[in-house]
Amino acid sequence: MKNNYYISARSNEQVQGINVNLSSEFEKGNIPSTVSFNANGSVETSGEAIYMNVNGSYDVEKRIFNNLNSSSLPSGFVSELENKITEFFNQIKIDQSL
Q: Looking at residues 69-94, what average pLDDT do you find?
């Protein structure tokens, strides 16, 4: 019997004042190909607080969002989210090389 060991990486970040949870699970010795995300909170638009919720996954190799589900997504949020995901992924690569 062969045992497979997995690593679970998690981070809590902020994008436009909204808490974002990033996570990825991958086999020991490998680098993940996908990062999952979940964010919710209130964002102010035109002086009005609007609740937003967004979740899905991001393919770091192809640089595309998969299963992006959202409500009341503010302008520029996706590009800032992509930057946070890339930073998270790059830190995993650094940690895996040590």
A: 91
